Amino acid sequence: MTSSAPRRRPRKDALANRDRILDHAEGVFATEGLDVSLHRLAEDLSLGIGTVYRHFPTRDDLLLGLYHRLQERVDEAGEALLSIEGAYERVVAFIDQTVQFSLDVPVARTVGARVQRLFPDEVRVSPTAGVVAGAVEEAKAAGTIRDDVDVTDIASLAGMLADLVWIRDPERSVVIPRMRVLVLDALRPQGEPRPGLPAGPVSMTELTRMAHRNRMDP
């Protein structure tokens, strides 16, 4: 009696499991840190540990896979910028995207830092940087951004704003919009009228409490 070779599961099922693992890891890593075990993730998802190992032999491989997927989101956001009319508007949209990404994916920076240490050759500059660089040069030529600004300045300012997402609401809803106005005002050519700041600011007491508050607290 001959036995037939075992049928392989359709690739779409394997990809679905991989996505489930990455989705769950993203959420768990955001709330519990990056050292949650693969066994724990497998149990949460009711998957055999062998299934997890087939996709990610180690937790470091899982972190790398998550990093690559997050980079894909950044790349897609950069492509979306191309549909925005106006160079200055594309620059502003990039800054807003960066802040929103940090709000939506709080684990992104931690994952990036770990991958930078473990797999430095895997870290790359997103094509989004080229899109933003082009927008900056167009805006400078049009006189809508000061002419001594570089794309690295824009990326640094966006990162500074994104760093403020650790502040909790209701203070965050006051602080970030005010800082955004100040950042955009700093990009304006000299002589242009300055916009007013949104409501606020928070008090020094509130600011001190924010600085000492752990965002992981319940």
TrEMBL record:
One of its GO terms (molecular function) is transcription cis-regulatory region binding. Transmembrane segments: none annotated. Pfam families: TetR_N. It comes from the Bacteria. Residues 15-74 form the HTH tetR-type domain. Residues 37-56 bind DNA. The keyword DNA-binding applies. Keywords: DNA-binding, Transcription, Transcription regulation. This is TetR/AcrR family transcriptional regulator. The lineage of its organism: Bacteria, Bacillati, Actinomycetota, Actinomycetes, Micrococcales.
